[in-house]
């Protein structure tokens, strides 16, 4: 069983990125378990002085979750042409750890317009030594209200796209 950790880079209650990672968890193919990391907003601001024995519990839990996962999926909104601070903060907690080194990662998108954040996030994860899967998933949810989002994510073509993306990611993980 492959264990995949899915992280939404948004803290919004009605986040389309969070809805997308939740839908990925519901549509995982056989042999894959997708667990959604939902404590992004509880992480303290990264401070290198708080590493080692001083690492806060919430940061240690994130580090352990990434370490134990076979792969990591990130769905990220774009704020001011960049990666949201909460997600960057979470990644900063992983920088000096082995958790990210050669860990398979895949980026998924809930907006076709988040091109700057996609490029920035890809650069960040490559710099951190994640093994970035070139396959991605995009389901256009931008500007949709929660009932519309759920309808789109439940459509057969969306479910198939999620299944295929997860299968491709599972193949990528297995090939490493």
Total beta-strand segments: 6
Radius of gyration: 15 Å
Mean pLDDT: 96
What characterizes the major β-sheet?
A: 6 strands, parallel
Encode the helix/strand succession as letters.
Answer: EHEHEHEHEEHH
- Shape call: globular
Query: Helix tally?
Result: 6
CA(first)-CA(last) distance: 16 Å
- Helix/strand-derived category reads alpha/beta
Helix content: 40-55%
Q: Beta fraction of the residues?
A: 15-25%
Sequence stretches where pLDDT stays below 50 over 5 or more residues: none
Describe this protein with a few key phrases.
six-stranded parallel beta sheet, globular, 16% strand, 176 residues, alpha/beta, 6 helices
Description:
The chain is built from six helices and six strands, in the order E-H-E-H-E-H-E-H-E-E-H-H. The radius of gyration is 15 Å and the shape is globular. Helices cover 42% and strands 16% of the residues. Strands 1, 2, 3, 4, 5 and 6 form a six-stranded parallel sheet that branches. The protein has 176 residues and is an alpha/beta fold.
């Amino acid at each position: 069983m492959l264990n995949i950790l899915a992280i939404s880079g948004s803290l919004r209650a009605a986040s389309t990125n969070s809805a997308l990672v939740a839908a990925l968890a519901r549509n995982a193919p056989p042999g894959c378990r997708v667990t959604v990391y939902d404590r992004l907003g509880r992480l303290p601001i990264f401070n290198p002085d708080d590493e080692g024995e001083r690492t806060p519990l919430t940061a240690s839990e994130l580090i352990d979750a990434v370490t134990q996962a076979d792969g990591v999926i990130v769905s990220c909104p774009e704020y001011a042409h960049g990666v949201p601070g909460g997600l960057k903060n979470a990644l900063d907690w992983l920088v000096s750890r082995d958790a990210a080194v050669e860990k398979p990662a895949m980026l998924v998108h809930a907006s076709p317009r988040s091109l700057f954040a996609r490029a920035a996030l890809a650069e960040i994860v490559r710099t951190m030594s994640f093994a970035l899967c070139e396959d991605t998933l995009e389901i256009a949810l931008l500007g949709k209200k929660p009932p519309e989002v759920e309808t789109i994510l439940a459509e057969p073509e969306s479910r198939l796209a999620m299944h295929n993306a997860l299968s491709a990611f599972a193949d990528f993980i297995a090939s490493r």
